[in-house]
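Many introductory courses stop at the sequence. We go one step further.
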Amino acid sequence: MAFITINSVIASFTAVKGDTAIILEGGAIVADVGDAISTFGANNEVTIRIDGQAVGAAQGVRLLGTDDALSNGIGANNVTVGATGSVIGGDFGVFFRGSSNNIVNWGEISGLTQNGIVVFSGADSGVNNHGTVFGDQHGVIITTNSLNVDVVNTGGILGATGSGVIFEAGSSGGSVTNSGTISTQDLGNANAKAISGADTVINSGLIRSPGVAIAQASSIINSGQIIGDVTMTADGDLFYGIGGSIFGAVFGGDGSDRYIIDDASTFIVETTTGGLFDSVGSFVNYQVAENIELAQLLGQEDINLTGNSQDNLLDGNDGANIMFGKEGSDNIKGLLGDDTLRGGAGNDTLVGGAGDDNLRGGADHDTLSGGAGDDILRGGADNDLLNGDEGDDTLHGGSGVDTLNGGAGNNSLYGGRGADTLDGGDDDDLLVGGSGKDTLRGAGGDDIIIGGAGQDVMSGGSGRDIFVFRQANDSPTNNTKDVITDFETGVDRIQLTGMTSGAMELIFSGGFSATGPSVKVVTPGANTKVLVDTDGDQAADFVLLIKGVQGLDAGDFLL
């Protein structure tokens, strides 16, 4: 063990175990053959500082672990290149073998024909570059069997014909943290990447390649600039792009990958054989890339999200969002804010969440739930289920056989075409059946129930309900008559206002009036029929059956 100071020019230096050597500014080691600085065998735990020059025909610095071990040997060597220092190797600039080796560079390191820095079968080693590292092939290479090697760069690392930083296959746990520049410049070499094989890449600087900038990374956090494509592994990977930019595509691979972005121009490529749960979280308006299944809006801004042709799960944020599922059977959730949700084609599920939301199912069999707030729900084509939930909601079934549930609040339900089922829920609701054979249930509250065209079955439930009939052809014959199942005399009322242009006479016995339009009430069995002659021809143009009720009087009608 010795402390050596070199302030002149010498041909070579071989360190032994525990040595500390300093090459002062103005000092130099120039080896015309072999290495400038080296160790062999069990000579480890060496500390070298270079403020001058180390120039070797083979390696500038070559430090080996215990017993020249090919793997798992202990190196525990430390090399620091100062701001005035330089290391040049004909083959490699700096070559480490074994574990627990560290290099800190503030100056220049070059490998003229091969690599700038080599970590060979290293474990728990570190490369810290604040100066420049150049390799005619790779700038920094971490070889097979290396574990947990961390590369930190605030300067510049360049691989001329290979990669800026490469972790070879068989290494694991490697990371690159870059706030400087890491690059390669050989477009003709398919294996040339700026960074290749690192498990984790954290970038706030510049990573640049004419082709692939980052290859086979499991986790990428980019707040800087990436020029070139990015390829992930076959596992479930993370690309976190907040505050950064990428001029190239991000290729996800086969696993279930996660992307967090704030730049809508981020071009994501997922294959049909990729993971089942690829996802994007976006702080900006975003059109979901093909083969992405899950997408979520982040933050509190009023931003929008559009799905793809897959079956998507789309989630909003705290703002007012517009979300459109497009093709596929989508699940769209609004969360907070006054959201607009569109299902498009496919069997979609739309949930408004909090806020006054607008939901439209589109084609196929959709399920819409308004959540809290005063919502508007439109089912569209086919057989839909609409749930207003809390708030004063408006529900439109559209075409198809629809089920509309108002839930809490004063709701308005419109069945549209088809044989629909409408349930107003508690509170004071408006139910309009539309054209088909509808079932309308007011449930609690003082409801207004309008059957519309078709043979409808109506019940008001508790409360003071009004059953409205506007046209005679809504229930024209005994075979097509509407039915009220729970009319309560003295509480509920039947409104026939507007069925004729003039007044109608109400008759409880005998035939129709011979002088004009009239309403006749008859009681066959335990039921009551209401018959309306709208044109004074003494023939029924409208028939209504009220089940289980007799004894109606004038107070039960609005004429």
